[in-house]
Every structure is written in C-alpha cells, then in structure tokens.
Amino acid sequence: MDRQYARRSHSLLVAASAAFAVSLASGGHALAQAASGLSPQEVEQLRAELKAVRAEAQAAHAQEAAREQKIDELQRRLDTATGAPPTPPIATIEPAQQGAKAARAEGGPNFEIYGFAQVDYTQDFNRVNPAWEDALRPSRLPTFKGEFGENGQSSISAKQSRFGVQASQDIAGQPLFVKFEFDLFGVGADEGQTTMRLRHFYGQWGPILGGQTNTNWMDVDIFPNTMEYWGPPGMVFLRNPQIRYTYKTGGNELAVAIEKPGNDVDAGNIREFDPALGASIQGSEKIPDLTAHWRYNGDWGHIQLGGILRQVSFDSAGTPDNQPKGHKTGWGLNLTGNIKTWQKDVLHLGIVYGEGIATYMNDGGVDLGPKANVFIPPPVGGGLPVVTLSPDVVPLTGALIYYDHYWNDRWSTALGWSVTHVDNLNFQEATAFQTGQYASINLLWTPEKHILAGAEYIWGQREGKDGFHSQDNRVQFSFKYSFSSNDFR
User: Fold this and answer.
1) Is residue 473's pLDDT more than 80?
2) What does residue 178 show for φ and ψ, rounded to 5 degrees?
C-alpha cells in the first residue's frame, strides 16, 4: 500500500470515527429514551464506549500531526543529503514553493495554479525616472539636477502581482517539473506600464533543464526578504533562456549551462564627433555564454561559487563591411552564501567581480565601452601625439550584505546594504554610471501564510563618471494576498 493511499484511508477512518462519535452524542437522549428498559449498568457501558471512541478520534488527530512533522523532518534530511535547497521559513515561502512542498509530501503527479495579488503605495521624497517610479534602481536616478522634474512623488501600483502554473510528475524514472510564471512589471519597450512580463517558462527532467529561468551563475537565495520590487543592485540577477545540466551528490551541486548572450555596448564620446557612427554601433551576439556554479548545502546554510565566460562582440549597422566591429572576452566570478545565525534568522552575503558582465547584474553599468589610447612619440624625431580608439570590456564589482530577522512567527525585519561599482573607461561619456548604492529596512507582518503586509524605507544613490551625485529616499507600504489551487483541494 503506497503512502498516499494509506494516508487517505487513515483520514477516512478518522472522519468516520468522528462522525460516529458526533451521532452518538447528538442522539444520546433519544437513544436513552428508546432504551428505557436498559439497566443502569448498560447505560454506563454505552457512555464509556462513547468516551473511548472520542478519545480514539483525538489520538488519531495527534498521530496525524506527528506523521506530518515526521514527513517534514525526513524531507529536510533528504534535501540535505541530495543537495536540494533547504526549505525557508513559512513567512518567506512563495505559493509555488508551498505547493511543491505539499506535492512532495503527498507523492505522485501535481498540477498547481498559484500567484499573489499585491498593491504598493510608494511615497518618494526625491525623484527618479518617471518610468521607474515603482522601483528604486540607482541607475535610474538623475544625471543632473532637476533632470526629471520636481522632487516628491507618490504612486500606487499593482505591478508586483504574479500568476503562474506548475506541474510535476515522474516520467521514465525521472522527475519532470514544468513552470510558467509572469508578473505585471513592464520593462524595456513596456517600461512604466502595467503589463505581462515573463519571469519563468521552463521544464526540467531529471538533471536537464531547458527554457527561461534564473541564470545559472546567480544565487537567488541571497535575495533578502524586501518588499521593493527591484532589490539590491550589487548582485547577479537575470532570468535568461538557457540549457542546463545539474549533478548532485550529498550536499554538493555542480551545474553548467549555455545561455542566451546579450551585450550592452556603450558608444561613449564617439557620438560627439561622429553621431552617425555612434548611433550605428551595436551589440553582436555570435556565440552563447557559458556559465557554471558549484554549491554546498549544510545545516548551517550554504555557499556557492558561480562563474561566466563570454564573448562580448560589437559591429556597426549600415557601414561598409559593418566596420568598426570586433569582440572582447568577458568573465566573472560570483561568491555568495547564507548563514543561519539564530532560530530562523539568516545572514545574506555576496560579492561579484568581472569584466563585461553588466548585462547579468541587477542594476548598473555596460558590458563594452570605448577606450582612448594615447601614443606620445619619443623626443628624438619629434611628432605629435597619436590618439587611437579601441573597445574594451568594462570592469565591475558588486557586493551585498543583508540580514533577515524574525521577531516571532508573525513579525520580521530585513535590513542591509548593497553596491555596484564600475571602473569607467576613459572615453565613456561624463554622465556614464559609475557607482550605485542601495539600503533598506522594513517591518513585515504575516498573520497567516497567505497574507503579508508591511512598511519599508529605501535609500538609493547614484554617482556618475563626472562625480555628480543624486539620491532618493522613499517609503513603501504593501499588502499581498497569496493563493494556490492546492489550498482548495
């Protein structure tokens, strides 16, 4: 008898016993009347039997709760042994994760519709690019005073609301998992709009994954429990189409992938002396990016080292032989980890460095830019200095430190700081992004796993290559209701 059938049979037995007990209790008076000829000893025997059945029903409920606790403990030990990420505290579990956990406990195929409806009220005391008023991205702060208008703006948004479906079952002896998920936060051509934005659309069969999901060299588990949508800038964060293979043994996990390339090329000051050429320079994606990560999960938390190797290419549209054109090698390393400190509290840490990796960062910078090379002839022979231009990958450093503290089962706080710093090339424009900082602190209330409400203070600062600083201070109030079809079974 499999576990699912046994648990259903047990539940039916408990329900039948409880119904029998209730019927005895509610009809006891009539039974006593109908059985008025019974002796006092027989009446007492009936009462004792009723009491015993009630006690059995209570014991059955206690045993069921103990079994559920045992299932959770065995699942936790199995996750640790196989390298699966540990289950986070209930206040931070997304509806999809709750459904996946329930499906594992029940066993067998599972299909789930999940999501949440969320509304955010933001009061901004400074000003950002109006298309990004519902998120704080340091790169979207002004490059000169008054660029976006007068300070002090308010917004109410439902853009964070999310909807998804996922399913799992075993096929040919391997687990199959598929997921489709979107939110309403428009970006790119839809920036500033409340419109569908694809987050995940992929399938994973055993160790093989294909589709769009988190890039293989990022560590999504270091994302803190914040309410503001975009989050800390100094971390690798991109959902990217990819083909991935993962190998797990014990607490170790090794994964390699090829991913869709996307090069962000800055023509810099070339636009000033040759606007047509500056406008024609574009990114060129000739070969996929190669990513990998190694991860170790333990009872204390986890550590992960990710890396990327990529070709950052460019060419020119509409010019003879598409000149100028060329490519440089981009690379990066991403060291991250979570440390469990006290009860459910978690310390999030991350540091990333690379060249030509801005496409994969949560915010700030470009992959490739122009560099001016000056050749000064020797005194003998004379001659004027010669200036030549060449493309080069842009160095970037990112860091994150956040702490999630749980005051109790209902109240929590996340606070921390993050930074992205770019070593600008000398021929980038004066207003080019150089440094972005971000800090926040919040107070969240989770009265029940489906409800989240809270307030958050966020600060951001942008510094350009020319040294101009701009900053933003804002508060955000949010309410979220999560749902899952598993809740209605």
Assistant:
1) yes
2) -130, 150
Tally the residues of the chain: 489
Instruction: Please report where in the chains the tokens 């299932």 appear, as a residue.
Output: 71
Question: What is the rounded distance in angstroms from the CA atom of residue 69 to the CA atom of residue 105?
Answer: 11
Q: Determine the Cα–Cα distance for residues 52 and 35; give it in Å rounded to an integer.
A: 21
Residue 477: CB atoms within 10 A of its CB come to 15
Looking at the DSSP bridge assignments, the partners of residue 354 are 332, 396
| pLDDT tens digits along 356-407 | 999 999 999 999 988 888 766 777 766 666 667 888 999 999 999 999 999 9
State how far Cα 237 lies from the chain centre: 8
Q: Alpha-carbon distance 170 to 142, whole Å?
A: 52
Cα 400 from Cα 436, distance rounded (Å): 12
Q: To the nearest 10°, report the CA torsion of 218, 293, 245, 80.
A: -90
Query: What's the CA gap between 340 and 434, in Å, rounded?
Result: 33
Helix or strand holding residue 6 (H, E):
helix 3-26
123-155 b/e (C-beta count within 10 Å ≥ 16 → b): ebebbbeeebbbbbbbbbbbbeeeebeeeebee
φ, ψ dihedrals at 188, nearest 5°: 60, -130
Neighbour count for residue 82 (Cβ, 10 Å): 14
Return the closest-CA partner of residue 180 out of 251, 239, 247. Answer: 239
- In the prediction, which pLDDT does 273 show? 59
Beta strands in 341-406 (DSSP E): 346-355, 368-375, 386-393, 395-406
Q: Are 349 and 255 in contact (CB under 8 A)?
A: no
Q: Calculate the CA dihedral of residues 157, 159, 161, 162 and round it to 10 degrees.
A: 180
- Start-to-end CA span in the chain (Å): 22
User: Is 321 a residue whose pLDDT tops 90?
Assistant: no
Q: Are 186 and 160 in contact (CB under 8 A)?
A: no
Residue 451 structure tokens = 């409800």
| Residue 38 pLDDT | 73
Residue 191, phi then psi, degrees to nearest 5: -60, 140
How large is the angle between the packed helices 40-82 and 3-26, nearest 10 degrees?
A: 150
Contacts of 320 (CB under 8 A, 6+ apart): none
Give the span between the Cα atoms of 448 and 20, in whole angstroms: 32
Q: Long-range CB contacts (< 8 A, 24+ apart) of 10-19? A: 10/60, 10/64, 11/64, 13/60, 14/57, 14/60, 14/61, 14/64, 17/53, 17/56, 17/57, 17/60, 18/57
